[in-house]
Specification:
With 474 residues, the chain is an alpha/beta fold. 33% of the residues lie in helices and 22% in strands. It has 4 domains: 4-153, Rossmann fold, CATH 3.40.50.12160; 175-288, Transcription Regulator spoIIAA; 294-409, Transcription Regulator spoIIAA; 414-471, OB fold (Dihydrolipoamide Acetyltransferase, E2P). The longest helix is centred in the last third of the chain and has 25 residues, at 385-409. Bound molecules: 5'-deoxyadenosine and iron/sulfur cluster (SF4).
Length: 474
């Protein structure tokens, strides 16, 4: 049951075949790098920036770790389990290194800052440690490490957005891409380590975002997901045009790239998502009807300890507002079970808001205390593990029911679906998503559709996770 809680992004759509940075002939490149990413979509997007920086310096990517000269792990600190997984991988890579001396191992991303001395000195696990704002210095650090020097840069920046770097797409299906629009977070939710590992919030230049989306569209992509820890606080002073660009105006600019380009975004903070954003979504058919709106807890008392700055009533009113403006909008959530001081009635309050919100999907976790966070400094992690896990199981069971209910409501409906590729289970079937971000699997039949095209699909069956349907020609 707890397997549902995964720290590695697993997604049928990320198994594509179109790449650019991978070398066929090893002699094409000065060195070959292998990069493994953990955690959120932002980390996956960062790995594509890293690949671009390394590519420019003459390094080629490989998917085979055995043939890599440089092994990078882009790490996640959000929960303890993610850190443990990374440590295990680093130990395996050290063994590889013993077999093939000269191989360099580097830790990138969120674990870099906190664990730099441990990794480099105490455990001698790695050769390079590079934080999320220091990727431009990576080629120079590789040279230092090759010369046997310590290679560390974990400085956080107030203005680095990598705006001018065109990410090279790793493991892409050639249809959907992540586009980072901002970095860092100023929110200080008390459980969260992100403000410490990724630093202050900063927004990327609007033109560079629109240009990246246009280039993606021109090279065949049909869906972009705009990424930030808190996209609704996107704020860019466009001095060239003397205007302030908010998230709503950014969405509109990206939606106008082409009506054939689907636009998604993640993550929204319930306190910040505005009517302006909702109306912009409603205005453009190609902005997908789907909002990831993390609840975290349904208890106002716990929300206050979490420093989320909204109450359960505020959250429910937001859900109402979304449904009022877009009755067909999908909503998903993040939920934490067993935060400090959580009592049975707080837990019930969470289940209650979940039912009220009728989430299509949720990412569910039990609370994991993170060093340096406000919660770790202020509160005791006082909920026993068995209670945390029992509450999490109840949350997961409720979500399973809500997901199935939501899918059953779609039976008989017709959706516009973007074909993302063949179904992993059966190559006679296509898989794609509807605007609400639900996965739909349907037979190809003898119709000549291709990946990246839109089709209309009628839903005639479902499981808890997937809609099943057939193409209807309109
Ligand atoms: N423990 C458990 N879950 C956490 N999250 C963030 N920090 C923690 C933590 N310390 C969850 C939140 C967040 C998602 C990305 O990860 O639900 O929205
Ligand atoms: Fe963490 Fe809260 Fe920022 Fe999300 S909004 S990254 S949970 S501090």
């Amino acid at each position: 049951m707890l397997d549902l809680v995964t720290d590695k992004v697993q997604d049928e759509t990320r198994q594509g075949e179109a790449f650019s940075p991978f070398a066929n002939d090893p002699n094409d490149y000065r060195k070959r790098f292998y990069i493994e990413s953990y955690g959120c979509q932002m980390n996956f997007a960062d790995s594509e920036i890293v690949a671009s920086i390394l590519n420019k310096e003459g390094f080629g990517a490989t998917r085979n770790v055995e043939e890599a000269d440089l092994i990078f792990v882009n790490t996640c600190s959000i929960r303890e389990k993610a850190e443990q997984t990374v440590r295990k991988r680093l130990t395996e890579f050290r063994k590889l290194k013993e077999k093939k001396p000269g191989t360099l191992v580097g830790v990138l991303g969120c674990m870099a800052e906190r664990l730099k001395s441990k990794f480099l000195e105490e455990e001698k696990l790695v050769d390079l440690v590079v934080g999320p704002d220091a990727y431009r210095t990576l080629p120079a650090l590789v040279t230092d490490a090759e010369g046997g020097q310590k290679a560390v840069n974990v400085l956080l920046s107030r203005d680095e957005t990598y705006a001018d770097i065109s990410p090279v797409r790793l493991d892409s299906n050639g249809i959907s891409a992540f586009v980072s629009i901002m970095r860092g977070c100023n929110n200080m939710c008390s459980f969260c380590v992100v403000p410490f590992t990724r630093g202050r919030e900063r927004s990327r230049d609007v033109d560079s975002i629109v240009n990246e989306c246009t280039e993606l569209f021109n090279s065949g992509y049909r869906e972009v997901t705009l990424l930030g820890q808190n996209v609704d606080s996107y704020y860019f002073n466009d001095e060239k045009n003397n205007t302030i660009i908010t998230f709503a105006s950014l969405l509109e600019r990206v939606a106008m790239v082409s009506p054939l380009l689907r636009v998604r975004f993640s993550t929204s903070h319930p306190k910040d998502i505005t009517d302006d954003v909702l109306h912009t979504m409603a205005k453009y058919e190609n902005i997908c009807r789907y909002i990831h709106l993390p609840l975290q807890s349904g208890s106002t008392r716990v929300l206050q300890l979490m420093n989320r700055t909204y109450t359960r009533e505020w959250y429910k009113a937001k859900v109402d507002r979304i449904r009022e403006i877009m009755p067909d909008c999908g909503i998903s959530s993040d939920i934490i079970a067993g935060f400090c001081t959580e009592e049975e009635n707080d837990h019930k309050a969470t289940l209650d808001v979940m039912e009220y919100s009728r989430y299509d999907m949720s990412y569910m976790f039990f609370y994991s205390e993170r060093p340096g966070t406000l919660a770790q400094r202020r509160y005791k992690d006082d909920i026993p593990e068995d209670i945390k896990k029992r509450r999490l199981v109840e949350i997961i069971e409720l979500q399973n029911k809500l997901s199935l209910d939501s899918n059953k409501k779609d039976l008989g409906k017709i959706f516009k679906v973007l074909i993302e590729g063949e179904s992993k289970r059966n190559s006679d079937n296509w898989m794609g998503r509807n605007s609400q971000n639900k996965v739909i699997v349907f037979p190809k039949g003898n119709l000549n559709y291709k990946k990246g095209e839109y089709v209309t699909v009628k839903v005639n069956d479902c499981t808890q996770a997937t809609l099943l349907g057939e193409i209807v020609e309109m």
